[in-house]
Design brief:
The chain is an alpha+beta fold and 409 residues long. 45% of the residues lie in helices and 20% in strands. The longest helix is centred in the C-terminal third of the chain and has 25 residues, at 382-406.
């Protein structure tokens, strides 16, 4: 598909979801937008492969149709995007995304259900079919999903404790509940009947049934008004107004700032050896400021000459690039000076990985002294850079010592 094939003037300057379809009308990619007109136009930029990825460039090239579906808010676009990703499993949304890093909204099966954000990797290990009443997703970005739930809970306060609300509480747990009730994050009373209505409303929102929800609330409001229960009617009137005028400015900011729906992924690399013996390369992963230790990887250096750190790093980065089943990073962190930085940039570019690269220079005590290759993106994620780098060093040393012990050193 080419830019001249799309009449952007006919596309709404409004929130919604857009879909790229292939030759067999298959869904190739789904995305959400603050402005459907502006967002879809951005896919036809000359440097789209660098801005997004080579995969997205291919999808736009292969697509024969672009469809849009307008929504009343970015929040609703976010929910509709997740619905379509689940329904169609588009190659553009799933090929470069590690399924373990998808995010879901879980509503627990309890007397007072909790509304939780759960990663794919935690679903099977933490929950069972009996403990999950409702499951919504997948959502590509945990950060955007958290902002969405903040918006929803301003209208419908819900419980999201890490502990079950059934049974007795510890002193600290009780303090947590009371504090969040006092600031309006949790329902003020443990009223099972009213809380069921809250959960039903949240289910409607994540099921893209806002119209149905508003109709039901309107009927309840009118019933209270007829009984002259004006306080109850007033509360419902405010909820209806809030639903009709969703304030999702935080989601709008995120949509404009972030060129991709994926989480921000930083990968740190390091190579460890003792006088060239048993060289090992490692990869560590930090996503949205959190370590993802089950995605750390160990590489045994097979071809680089002993003591040649440049060649060892080349080998690790090249082998990592071949793993398309792993989500690609937006930022790569290595150890070393300008020479290491330039070498890593070239290696990744030659391998087709469009990620920014920075290197961490250490002082004589092996503490971070300077970060080379800083950009606006790198400055924003400096904490993630230092975390990925320190984790890479720790992980490399741990694995290297383990290998030496097995050899009897």
């Amino acid at each position: 598909m080419k830019k001249e094939n799309v009449d952007f003037k006919k596309l709404p300057d409004a929130p919604g979801v857009y879909i790229f379809r292939g030759p067999k009308k298959e869904v190739l990619y789904v995305g959400k937008a603050t402005s459907l007109r502006d967002r879809t136009k951005s896919y036809f930029a000359r440097d789209i492969a660098e801005i997004r990825s080579p995969l997205i460039e291919k999808i736009v090239s292969d697509a024969i149709a672009l469809e849009v579906e307008e929504t009343d808010s970015v929040l609703e676009a976010l929910i509709l995007e997740a619905h379509y990703i689940k329904k169609y499993e588009p190659v553009g949304n799933t090929d470069n995304k590690d399924n373990k890093s998808w995010n879901y909204v879980v509503i627990t099966n309890e007397q007072f259900p909790r509304v939780l954000i759960v990663r794919e990797r935690e679903l099977s290990s933490t929950f069972s079919e009996k403990t999950v009443a409702q499951l919504f997703g997948p959502f590509p970005s945990a950060g955007v999903l958290r902002e969405a739930l903040k918006i929803i809970r301003k209208i419908f306060p819900f419980f999201d404790t890490k502990f079950s609300l059934s049974g007795d509480y510890s002193s600290s747990q009780e303090k947590t509940i009371l504090f969040n009730q006092s600031i309006g994050l949790y329902p003020r009373e443990f009223d099972e009947r009213e809380y069921k209505k809250t959960i039903r409303a949240i289910v409607d929102i994540f099921s893209a049934k806002k119209v149905t929800l508003i109709q039901r609330l309107s009927r309840e409001m009118n019933a209270h008004a007829k009984k002259r229960e004006f306080e109850e009617a007033g509360i419902l009137k405010k909820k209806i107004f809030a639903l009709q005028h969703i304030q999702d400015i935080t989601l709008i900011k995120d949509d404009l700032r972030t060129p991709t729906t994926a989480d921000f992924r930083v990968e740190g690399y390091d190579v460890a050896h003792i006088s060239g013996a048993s060289p090992r390369g490692v990869m560590t992963v930090v996503v949205n400021g959190e370590r993802v230790q089950d995605e750390y990887r160990l590489f045994t250096i097979r071809h680089a000459t002993a003591g040649d750190d440049y060649a060892a790093l080349d080998e690790v980065l090249t082998r990592r690039a071949k793993h398309r089943e792993w989500a690609y990073p937006q930022l790569v962190v290595i150890d070393g000076g300008k020479g290491h930085l330039n070498r890593a940039k070239k290696t990744l570019k030659d391998a087709g990985v469009m990620a920014e690269v920075v290197s961490v220079v250490k002082d004589e005590k092996h503490r971070p002294r300077e970060v080379l290759g800083k950009s606006a993106t790198a400055l924003t994620h400096e904490r993630d850079i230092l975390l990925a780098n320190s984790e890479a060093h720790r992980f490399a040393i741990t694995k290297h010592r383990s290998a030496l012990r097995k050899k009897g050193y």
